[in-house]
Amino acid sequence: MCDPVSAAVAVVGAVASQAMAPKPPKMPDPVAPVTPPQASKAPDQQAVRAGQAASGGGSAASAGPQGTMLTGMGGVAPGALALGKNTLLGS
Question: Could you report the per-residue pLDDT of 2-16, keeping only the tens digit for each?
Answer without folding.
Answer: 688 888 888 888 888
